[in-house]
Amino acid sequence: MDVIEIFGGKPLKGKIRISGSKNSALPILASTLLTNSTVRLTNIPSLSDIFSMIDLLKSLNVKILKKKNSCYTFKSNKPKSLIAPYELVRKMRASFLILGPLLSRYGYAKVSLPGGCAIGTRPVDLHLDCLKKMGASFKIKNGYVHGSVKSKLKGTSINFKKKSVGATENYCILKWTTKVISKFSRSCSSSTFSTINSNKVNIFFFYNHCLNYRN
Fold this sequence. Notes:
Blueprint: H1 22-31, E1 38-41, H2 48-59, E2 62-68, E3 71-76, E4 83-84, H3 86-89, H4 99-106, E5 108-112, H5 125-133, E6 136-141, E7 144-149, H6 165-173, H7 175-178, H8 193-214
Parallel strand pairs: 4-5
Antiparallel strand pairs: 1-3, 2-3, 5-7, 6-7
């Protein structure tokens, strides 16, 4: 197998630019669907998953401009169709994070079951179960999740049946519109908690900024 051989003995020094976190950026990108205000995000990493999410948002009538290397602006307008097709969602499992924002803002969404999972079977039942507790209803037909809300999603206490990073992020995303989710999963092992928790913290920083701007 290939190896990296390191010859040390010298102190490291210098400056490097740290790229933004993909796992923080993806749920925040999905969150731009929640508002019709222009959102400006900087230090977005240039990765294939990011580009896949951008393509998905564009298909939902989000106007996206790239200002410079890592800076983008997003303006979410009402889409002609509230369908997230398989050919876009299959590329990346995090695409399923758009389900909550679409339901919250428009009351309906048709989202393909996600692909892109190389870590074994990870169903979306936790996403759907918790959205049901918030007032949504679902039907699964021909590989698509059809979701609807009669009025608005409502904040509630949520205890996950098992660990789920994506499901926890989906409900962190809805904090802005549902006021409070009083309990959410520490969906990670102790060895990865600090990294995953920082992603959720970044989501809340984003919402607090949006709320301060709106108020």
